[in-house]
């Protein structure tokens, strides 16, 4: 029992270095954790992305309806079998022979 291990005295500076290292690690983890929750792409921003996605889907549906209306109009102007009413409307409008008080009634 005479061969006991003797412990070396621990200096105050080495203890403070250990605490400083742990404190720095906690700060780094806190910064990354805060960024994951409150950052630009964090959990809190996810709700905003969901609302923006819904708004864009609604806008896409409106644009799709407008595109379909234009496609229908283009189909009516097909040179092989053009709609006579559509051709008459466009010709009168482009040549300026429609009177200002004249009302063009679409048949769609």
Automatic annotation (TrEMBL):
The keyword Membrane applies. It holds the Pfam family DivIC. One of its GO terms (biological process) is cell division. The chain crosses the membrane at residues 20-39. Keywords: Cell cycle, Cell division, Membrane, Transmembrane, Transmembrane helix. InterPro entries: FtsL/DivIC. This is Cell division protein FtsB. It comes from Sphingomonas jejuensis.
């Amino acid at each position: 029992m005479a061969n006991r291990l003797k412990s070396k005295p621990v200096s105050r500076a080495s203890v403070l270095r250990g605490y400083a290292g742990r404190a720095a690690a906690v700060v780094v983890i806190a910064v990354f954790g805060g960024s994951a929750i409150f950052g630009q792409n964090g959990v809190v921003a996810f709700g905003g992305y969901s609302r923006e996605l819904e708004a864009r889907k609604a806008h896409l549906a409106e644009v799709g309806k407008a595109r379909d209306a234009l496609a229908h109009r283009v189909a009516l102007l097909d040179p092989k079998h053009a709609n006579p009413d559509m051709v008459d409307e466009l010709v009168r409008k482009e040549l300026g022979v429609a009177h200002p008080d004249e009302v063009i009634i679409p048949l769609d």
